[in-house]
Amino acid sequence: MIIAAGAGTASVPGSASAAARASRSGKVALNKPGAAASSVVSVRAWGDNSAGELGDGSLTGQAAPVPVARLSGVAAISANGRHDLALLANGTVMSWGDNTLGQLGNGTTSANHNAELPVAVTGLPKAVAVAAGGEHSLALLANGTVMAWGDNSNGQLGDGGTTSSDVPVAVQGLSNVKAIAAGDLFSVAVLANGTVMTWGRNSVGQLGDGSNTDSDVPVAVKGISTAVAAAAGGQHVLALLANGTAMAWGDNESGQLGSGSMTSGSSNVPVAVKKLTGATAVSAGYDHSMALLSSGAVRVWGDNGFNQLGAPNGFPSGIADSDVPIAVTNST
Q1: Residues 6+ apart with CB under 8 A from 124
Q2: Full DSSP string of 18-86
Q3: What angle do CA 16, 21, 24 make, to 5 degrees?
Q4: How far apart are the first and last CA of the chain?
Q5: Which of 13, 35, 130, 279 is the most buried (most CB within 10 A)?
Q6: Percent of the chain having pLDDT more than 70?
Q7: How far apart are CA 43 and CA 68, in angstroms?
């Protein structure tokens, strides 16, 4: 089973286990009895459903998982704020939930066009990965380019403007992309050469280019040349490097960069995540971060106000944050 939980994980082409971001209002899970995408039994969802984000044809919230309707042959899933995406094995993309800013990509906009059942994203060539941002969406195409749709108030669609779009538009200047991730108002792409490109909002340095200026086209993250995956949180980014370490940039109010200091505030250039080796995957929540190690153990850091760090390291109240990675209790 693959669960889109937390806030952002890059989707990697060719990996049926690549699930992206999670909703702050609910979760979606992909039931996979076997390795082949065609063997997926169902997608299930639970939590808030006020915009139809559970995809079950209703607006009723659910405390237990319910099947998402109209889906088969699902290869990957992604969820954020109040909308969800499903990548099918044939390369088409389905979406459901909130559509206030066109984030479903089906040619309609406004809350009156929210979808309580999955609808097809229109005008999209064969996709190999998807990522749901706060109110925008990304698709990585088989040819290594990226298309985006939805809110574009901060340039997060990367098309050179700030006009929102209810159908996919091409992200400018990108090729040879191997993974994507989407934050609240910004987007991330990992290239085949190990560099990372970002675009959109940059108020706390989440673009990692050394500035705090928004960009409506992709810009290069400074100092990274060996990235293999990335994850986007609310306002921060993690990059997994080929040597099993990680770099992070953006907001650090709760220590989510893992740099050993919350007092230094945000960083507009990548900093090393301390005390982390042997990482094989990373994921970013809104204000916290996670890494899966080759041993099967999990490391977490950042905000712990809702026990999202697993109340480890002698934090019985589940309140104390951590600015360096710590072990999740009972995770193997």
Answers
A1: 92, 93, 105, 139, 141, 147, 168
A2: ------SSEEEEEE-SSSSGGG--EEEEEE--TTSTT-SSS---EEEEEEPTT--SEEEEEEETTEEEE
A3: 145
A4: 17
A5: 130
A6: 85
A7: 6
Q: Tell me the backbone φ, ψ of residue 324, rounded to 5 degrees.
A: -140, 155
In contact, 298 and 331? CB cutoff 8 Å: yes
Q: Compute the average pLDDT of residues 216-240.
A: 98
Q: How far, in Å, CA of 279 to CA of 226, rounded?
A: 14
For 207, how many CA atoms within 13 A lie in the half-sphere containing its CB?
24
Token pair in block for residue 87: 């990548």
Residue 125 in 3-state DSSP? Answer: coil
Q: How far apart are CA 144 and CA 210, in angstroms?
A: 26
- What element of type H or E holds 293? strand 288-293
**Which helix (DSSP H) or strand (DSSP E) does residue 150 occupy?**
strand 146-150
Residue 24: per-residue pLDDT? 47
